[in-house]
Amino acid sequence: MNNNKTIGEFVAQDFRTAAIFSKHKIDFCCKGYKTIDEVCKKKGINSTSLEMDLATILSSKNDTDINFKSWPANLLIDYILETHHRYIDEKTPTLVFFLDKLCKVHGERHPELFEIKTLFTISSTDLIMHMKKEEIILFPFIKTIETAILSNKTIDKPYFGGIENPITMLREEHESEGSIFSKIALLTNDFNPPVDACNTFKVTYSMLLEFQQDLHKHIHLENNILFPMAIKMEKQFYNN
């Protein structure tokens, strides 16, 4: 197995490997640029065990997962918008309501709820601004440059310079979101509610876990597939 292959490249090849990296507490989305060797050395992980898990997944038949790498940028962007951006828009108000209710009812016995609520509020507010940057600035330009390549047309360079400028900023914001949810995971005992939890408590923790999982896939699709694709298209377009 190629230990110099990045985590993101493994997950882009087969998303089922994400479960393996998660099991070993390896960030495959925000830090997907790191190699197997790098993460194993840093975390003290037995690389042989990890490689065996990955080999088992990669050698097994996969009939269900979608090969997002084969999609054109336009289609991938529409998928991200309709699946992941919409998910955040729809789930955030409910989670804010539940967290507020939990703080009022259970905050005295579980003071960690106040920090969880604060962190989620920061995360969701930042995500709304982050998504607007993608929807208004980056995604339209990626669609424009892909259409220009296909139709052999010329376009002016964008006001933000090279496409790597906004992508670098968005990747940094992804890392910040990942860091916030790592703190939430720690405060919630990996989203396991306490023994005295009511149904609202259990539902809220389940929703937070689902939100994190959706965010991980969302960031993976952008960091490891869409952004490299866009950078490659821009180089192809302006170098021709």
Protein described:
With 240 residues, this protein is mainly α. Helices cover 72% and strands 0% of the residues. The chain has helices at 7-13, 17-23, 36-43, 47-59, 73-106, 112-151, 164-187, 199-239. Helix 5 packs antiparallel against helix 6 (112-151) and helix 6 (112-151) runs parallel beside helix 8. It is globular, with a radius of gyration of 20 Å. The two termini are 35 Å apart.
Question: Which terms summarize this structure?
Answer:
0% strand, 8 helices, globular
Low-confidence stretches: none
Write down the secondary-structure element order.
HHHHHHHH
Summed up, the helix count is: 8
Helix content: over 70%
Structural class by secondary-structure content: mainly alpha
The largest sheet is:
none
Dominant shape = globular
Distance between the termini: 35 Å
Kindly provide the radius of gyration, computed on alpha-carbon positions and rounded to a whole number of angstroms. 20 Å
Secondary structure elements and their pairing?
Elements: H1 7-13, H2 17-23, H3 36-43, H4 47-59, H5 73-106, H6 112-151, H7 164-187, H8 199-239
Helix pairs in contact: 1-8, 5-6, 5-8, 6-7, 6-8, 7-8
Question: Could you give a quick summary of the protein structure above?
Answer:
This protein is mainly alpha-helical and about 240 residues long.
